[in-house]
């Protein structure tokens, strides 16, 4: 007798959803052998095609990678860039020296530690701290403007169209960053950082949308995680290229900053060959023919009727609903819970302290007692671990689930941030604790990459239907960049005010975010957009729970019957 495989359970991403949809519409139960056999033999298609991979690579390398690169690019060359600031200020105030002579004197005498005793010559310490803080934070400040405008651009020009148009701004920003070295202007450098931040803000809104809307339901989490994988890869690339024997020198730091445009050239050349997202074409543009062509290209097969039907169903459900602005979203009580979840998850990413580590990791390691060169290599090690663990997270995202991985990551970060604080406090008494500090930071990065690094970016697109989705993405992206900006500004002040305890506020917030996630955040793996949005609608949710219980009982009876036979 032929052995039959177990029936699909009600929470299976294909069988359960299909049955739930059928029962919701007609309240009919499974009654025929043909239906049972169809469920037993139905197997998911392999939708991870070469064209889908090409579209993902084109999207993330020209957007998310650039975001990560510009996040980490100032870390390694910070000292030589501060020397440039000092000499620029010095030359503006009456010195007849050249820039090269000034830099040579600063580097040879190690006098880049600015002095209060020579006002009018070099910058004072407070001036340097302020200007460098502005340089670091300008990127995140620009990101808030780009993030809040991402929804407008993705609605008006499409997800693909927004990414392509955004490249123009990024190329202008890269040119300003490079030129700042030649015209001896740190003001231009700060302005370039602001503009590249605006471009990055648009990317963080458009790229996750593009990824989530070109991927099938079974691969949505996997594809979404590639956004964070590209960000971490960009951070690592910037840290490696910023080494002193590569581009982290007084002669080449501006080239290091300008290299961000290489990823933009890649996207211009490749994304033009990729289609707009099928969901945008079908639901926003009401263009079924182009949506079908896009699906055929992405899936590598002619039969895409099932996905088209899903999109048609969503389009029917959203007919008659207004186009959501950010204000409309904030006024809609039915969408308040998913919006709060989206915002708090974005806060949990930034207020976890991760960018304090990325922006100031070399300085953190130095204060832990490592030499300058060792601290730089330790920073690269953290970047490598971040990339590797984000890739692992991508592989298990659609199996382990978003909620589980986010809880695991936040819990690990809480534990290791607490150990980090204790290592700082007692390292003078116990010398080997400086190495514990490095290991703790690596474990902290591993925990971040497990869930909090990737999940907040793409879960927003999963919690909302097509109508309010872009407005929700704009709000979430704005919050993320505002938190990013806050961290960049506050960390130096925390270091001065709290000393060795400067990381403790992040530890407390990690605990609060873990509690919120445990209580409020639902699991979204394997669920269609309609099923996820139904979770937050009380009437639909209660109905779905009743249907799922009834479905579970029927599957159990069918499985028992199959086992007996």
Automatic annotation (TrEMBL):
Gene3D superfamilies: MFS general substrate transporter like domains. Residues 1-14 have a biased composition (Basic and acidic residues). One of its GO terms (molecular function) is hexose transmembrane transporter activity. The chain crosses the membrane at residues 48-69, 130-154, 166-183, 189-211, 252-274, 374-397, 404-426, 432-459, 471-491, 497-519. Keywords: Membrane, Transmembrane, Transmembrane helix, Transport. InterPro entries: GLUT (IPR045263), MFS_dom (IPR020846), MFS_sugar_transport-like (IPR005828), MFS_trans_sf (IPR036259), Sugar/inositol_transpt (IPR003663), Sugar_transporter_CS (IPR005829). It is a multi-pass membrane protein. SUPFAM superfamilies: MFS general substrate transporter. Residues 1-32 are annotated as: Disordered. Residues 56-525 form the Major facilitator superfamily (MFS) profile domain. This is Major facilitator superfamily (MFS) profile domain-containing protein. The keyword Acyltransferase does not apply. The keyword Transmembrane helix applies. It is found in: Membrane. Belongs to the major facilitator superfamily. Sugar transporter (TC 2.A.1.1) family. One of its GO terms (cellular component) is membrane. Signal peptide: none annotated. Residues 21-31 have a biased composition (Low complexity).
């Amino acid at each position: 007798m032929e052995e039959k495989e177990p029936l699909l359970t009600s929470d299976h991403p294909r069988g359960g959803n299909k049955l739930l949809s059928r029962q919701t519409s007609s309240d009919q139960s499974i009654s025929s052998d043909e239906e049972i056999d169809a469920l037993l033999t139905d197997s998911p298609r392999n939708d991870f095609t070469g064209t889908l991979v090409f579209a993902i690579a084109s999207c993330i390398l020209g957007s998310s990678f650039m975001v990560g690169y510009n996040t980490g690019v100032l870390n390694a060359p910070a000292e030589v860039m501060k020397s440039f600031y000092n000499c620029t200020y010095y030359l503006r105030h009456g010195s007849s020296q050249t820039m090269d002579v000034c830099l040579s004197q600063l580097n040879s005498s190690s006098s880049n530690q600015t002095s209060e005793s020579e006002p009018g010559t070099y910058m004072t310490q407070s001036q340097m701290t302020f200007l460098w803080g502005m340089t670091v934070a300008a990127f995140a400040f620009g990101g808030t403007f780009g993030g809040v405008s991402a929804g407008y651009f993705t609605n008006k020009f499409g997800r693909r169209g927004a990414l392509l148009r955004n490249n123009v701004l990024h190329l202008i920003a890269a040119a300003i960053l490079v030129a700042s070295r030649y015209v001896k202007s740190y003001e231009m450098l700060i302005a370039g950082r602001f503009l590249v931040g605006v471009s990055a803000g648009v990317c963080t809104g458009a790229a996750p949308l593009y990824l989530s809307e070109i991927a099938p339901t079974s691969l949505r989490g996997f594809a979404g995680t590639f956004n964070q994988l590209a960000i971490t890869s960009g951070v690592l690339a910037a840290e490696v290229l910023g080494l002193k024997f590569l581009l982290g020198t007084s002669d080449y730091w501006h080239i290091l900053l300008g290299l961000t445009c290489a990823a933009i050239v890649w996207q211009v050349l490749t994304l033009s060959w990729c289609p707009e997202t099928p969901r945008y074409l079908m639901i926003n543009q009401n263009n079924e023919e182009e949506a079908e062509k896009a699906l055929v290209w992405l899936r590598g097969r002619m039969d895409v009727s099932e996905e088209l039907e899903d999109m048609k169903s969503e389009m029917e459900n959203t007919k008659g609903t207004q186009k959501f602005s950010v204000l409309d979203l904030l006024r809609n009580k039915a969408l308040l819970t998913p919006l709060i979840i989206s915002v708090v998850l974005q806060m949990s990413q930034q207020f976890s302290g991760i960018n304090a580590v990325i922006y100031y990791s070399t300085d953190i390691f130095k204060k832990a007692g490592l030499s300058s060169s060792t601290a730089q290599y330790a920073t690269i090690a953290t970047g490598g671990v971040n990339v590797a663990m984000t890739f692992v997270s991508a592989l298990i995202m659609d199996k382990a689930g978003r909620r589980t991985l986010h809880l695991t990551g936040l819990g690990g970060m809480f534990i290791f941030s607490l150990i980090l604080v204790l290592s700082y406090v007692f390292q003078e008494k116990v010398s080997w604790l400086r190495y514990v500090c490095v290991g703790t930071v690596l474990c902290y990065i591993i925990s971040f990459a497990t869930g909090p690094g990737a999940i907040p970016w793409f879960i927003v697109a999963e919690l909302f239907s097509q109508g309010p989705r872009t407005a929700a993405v704009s709000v979430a992206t704005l919050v993320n960049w505002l938190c990013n900006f806050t961290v960049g500004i506050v960390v130096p002040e925390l270091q001065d005010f709290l000393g060795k305890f400067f990381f403790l506020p992040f530890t407390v917030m990690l605990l609060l975010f873990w509690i919120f996630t445990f209580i409020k955040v639902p699991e979204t793996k394997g669920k269609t957009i309609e099923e996820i949005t139904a979770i937050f609608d009380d009437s639909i949710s209660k109905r779905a729970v009743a249907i799922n219980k009834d479905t579970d009982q029927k599957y159990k009876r069918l499985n028992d019957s199959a086992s007996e036979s």
